[in-house]
Amino acid sequence: MTRSEEAEHLYRRSSEFQETADFQLERGFYALAVFNAEQSLQLWLKAKLLEEGATFPQTHGVRSPMELLSSIADEDTGKQIKRLMDLYLIELGALEDAYVASRYLMRD
C-alpha cells in the first residue's frame, strides 16, 4: 500500500469514527462518543502527516501528532495549529483522558 493509499484509508476510517461518534452522541452514549471522536481526530492527523511525508508517531493521543504537524507544515499553517493547541489545550487533554477512561476505567 502506498503512502497515498494509506492516507486515504485513514481519512475514510476517520470519517467512519466521526459518524459513529455523532450517532452515539444522539443516543446519549457519551463515553463511547468521545472515544470515537478522539479516534477520528487521531486518524485524521496521522493521515495528514502521511500526506506531508512524515511518519506519524505510534501514540494513542492527539497532541503529539498535532505538534509534529505544526513543525512540518508551512509557516502559516504551523502557527494556526499551535494557536489551536494553545486555545484548546485543556480540551485536547480531556479528549485524550476520555479515550483512556472510556476503555479502561469504570467511570463515565
Could you list some keywords that capture this structure?
mainly alpha; globular; 108 residues; 5 helices; 0% strand; single chain
Rg, Cα atoms, Å: 14 Å
By DSSP (H or I, 4+ residues per run), the number of helices equals 5
- Helical content class: over 70%
Number of strands: 0
Tally of discrete structural domains: 1
Low-confidence stretches: none
Mean pLDDT: 90
N-to-C SSE series?
A: HHHHH
Give the N-terminus to C-terminus distance in angstroms: 38 Å
Structural class: mainly alpha
Could you characterize what this model shows?
The chain has one domain (3-101). By secondary structure, it is mainly α. The chain has helices at 3-27, 30-51, 63-72, 75-87, 89-104. It is built from 5 helices and no strands.
In short:
With about 110 residues, this protein is mostly helical. It has helices at about 5-25, 30-50, 65-70, 75-85, 90-105.
Summarize the SSE layout with pairings.
Elements: H1 3-27, H2 30-51, H3 63-72, H4 75-87, H5 89-104
